[in-house]
Amino acid sequence: MTLAFTFFFRDQHVLERAVEHSLPAMAGRSHPRIWDAGVAMGQEPYTLAMLFAERMGHFAFNNLRIDATDVESTGQFAQVIEAGLYPREELSRLPEGILDRHFEPDDKPGYFRVIENVRQRIAFQRHDLLSFKEIGFGYSLIICKNVLLHFQPLERIKVLKMFHRALAPGGFFATEQTQEMPPELAAMFERVISDGQLFRKVEGGERIVTLRNGGGSSAVRRQERGNNQAPVAA
Questions:
Q1: What angle do CA 133, 137, 141 make, to 5 degrees?
Q2: Distance between CA atoms of residues 132 and 178, nearest Å
Q3: CB-based contact 48:34 (threshold 8 Å)
Q4: What share of the chain has pLDDT > 90, as a percent?
Q5: How many CA atoms does the CB half-sphere of 28 hold within 13 Å?
Q6: What is the pLDDT of residue 215?
Q7: Which three-class secondary structure state does DSSP give residue 113?
Q8: At what angle are helices 205-213 and 218-228 packed, to 10 degrees?
């Protein structure tokens, strides 16, 4: 399933909170990695890159990599993302100053190109989330917005388990505001803000879920309750 409709700085609040929460954990990593799943024509991963660029030093930002994936198979999305070229009307929602700092006018009338240093942070590859196979491991942040709601409940659970495996210890996962975390996975993800769907990976959570589904012990259930009682940041 390919869903191409999106725009720059869509769901800006949750993206900003995801960046702010993940930055401290990324500070000790020489080459931090982000996975943005279901990226359509690239507006969201470029938004992420710009948000990180606004908050990171030049050297640290140059070591950042954002793996942008989508199931689209014609190559159209890959071409658009690689070029980083967008019409002026698509940029009307940009916050003040972003156009001047992160875009440059193109020779093609009415078009602007994402500046090279931001474009170089994005690596696109085709990936089907319903393969339930990770594209890698050790991600500091995974974003998947406006995709999971189109999956069946069991498919969502399996995709979220895949994201859990792909995250680094203490890594973060963000999704759209309307997409609640399935209660079956409460032991695997700790919600960290009250005004957005941003979660931190719970180490050992997948084992707890497996034991619970198999009956589990009272000790495991006590541990699960302890994980679920973690405070939510404002």
A1: 105
A2: 22
A3: yes
A4: 78
A5: 6
A6: 53
A7: strand
A8: 130
Which domain range does residue 43 map to? 12-180+191-202
The model's pTM = 0.87
Domain CATH code at residue 85? 3.40.50.150
pLDDT of the residue at 41 = 94
In a domain? residue 231: no
Fill in the DSSP letter of residue 129: G
Handedness of CA 16, 180, 70, 1 (dihedral sign): negative
Q: Are 190 and 202 in contact (CB under 8 A)?
A: yes
Q: Quick one: pLDDT at residue 4?
A: 53
Residue 69 β-bridge partners:
37, 125
Q: What are the structure tokens assigned to 25, written together?
A: 């954990």
- In-domain check, residue 234: no
d(CA 186, CA 101): 40
Contacts of 71 (CB under 8 A, 6+ apart): 1, 2, 38, 126, 127, 128, 129
* Alpha-carbon dihedral sign for residues 75, 78, 79, 85: positive
pLDDT in tens, 178-230: 889 999 999 999 999 999 999 999 998 777 787 777 654 444 344 444 444 44
Q: Does residue 117 sit within a domain?
A: yes
DSSP, collapsed to helix, strand or coil, labels residue 170 as strand
Task: Give a yes or no: residue 73 inside a domain.
Answer: yes
Residues shown for the chain: 234
Domain count for the chain: 1
